[in-house]
Amino acid sequence: SQTIHQWPATLVQPVGSPLSLECTVEGTSNPNLYWYRQAAGRGLQLLFYSIGIDQISSEVPQNLSASRPQDRQFILSSKKLLLSDSGFYLCAWNFQGTAYGYTFGSGTRLTVV
Amino acid sequence: GQSLEQPSEVTAVEGAIVQINCTYQTSGFYGLSWYQQHDGGAPTFLSYNGLDGLEETGRFSSFLSRSDSYGYLLLQELQMKDSASYFCAVRGDDKIIFGKGTRLHILP
Fold first, then answer.
1. How far apart are CA A4 and CA B64, in angstroms?
2. Which residues are paired to A111 by β-bridges?
3. Interatomic CA distance for residues A38 and A36, integer angstroms
4. Is-contact A76 A90, C-beta < 8 A?
5. What's the pLDDT band for B24 if we cut at 50, 70, 90?
6. Quick one: B22 exposed, middle or buried, by C-beta within 10 A (0-12, 13-18, 19+)?
7. pLDDT at residue A100 in the model
8. Which of the listed residues A54, A80, B5, B29 has the most CB atoms within 10 Å of its CB?
9. CB-based contacts of A57: which residues, under 8 Å, 6+ apart?
10. Best interface-test mutation with B: which of A42, A90, A100, A106 has the largest number of B CBs within 10 A?
């Protein structure tokens, strides 16, 4: 069976500090991978999605970036965090070529102070 | 542009039935999904409709009408643990677009 791992679960970072969130999927190959952000009490905002290694699409221009150095690894980064980057970050995957639903990681709650 | 509309909040009584509607406007359509999210948790997949009609999974059912660009999630025999946010999501092109979510409040 497939599993998705996301870490860390919580993070408190000062403004201007760097960020690295990691997500890995096990039990499948060539998944679609996604990063979402959810502000408190709000919907899900798609940040990045990837259909393959080094194939990243950005949905929202901002100071975040994503990378996919391996087939089942997806990393969300920032060089300098802003207060507005606070939120609940979710990694998700689904099968290539399918309209079926996502499986989400457990999320990272980021607070920028 | 692409958009999904669903009510922001719905209130129902324990043991009752509630319906959460979702209308969508997307370029391309490859299915409608529903997700449940409890406070502090990640969304979990509930159901998927690729074709018109009703899909039933236990107390939850989901309906799709592609000609009306409309779907709904039906929750029966409501329990307090069903208090959560519910998101509809539509697959278009290479990604899935989410609605803003419906907060379901359940009264005892």
1. 29
2. A12
3. 7
4. no
5. very high
6. buried
7. 67
8. B29
9. A48, A49, A50, A51, B94, B95
10. A100
Tell if the CB–CB gap between B42 and A104 is shorter than 8 Å: yes
Q: Which two three-digit tokens encode residue B26?
A: 């997307």
User: Which residue type does B56 have?
Assistant: E
B13 contacts: CB under 8 Å, gap ≥ 6 = B78, B106, B107, B108
What pLDDT score was predicted for residue B78? 97
Residue pair A65/A19 in contact (Cβ under 8 Å)? The answer is no
Among the partner-chain residues B31, B35, B42, the one whose CB lies closest to the CB of A99 is B31
Helix (H, G, I), strand (E, B) or coil at B14: coil
CA distance B26 to chain A (A): 14
Q: Which residue has the tokens 């221009």?
A: A61
Q: Which two tokens stand for residue A32?
A: 């679609």
**How does pLDDT run along chain A (113 residues), one tens digit per residue?**
889 999 999 999 999 999 999 999 999 999 999 999 998 777 898 899 998 998 998 887 678 999 999 999 999 999 999 999 999 999 999 887 665 678 999 999 999 99
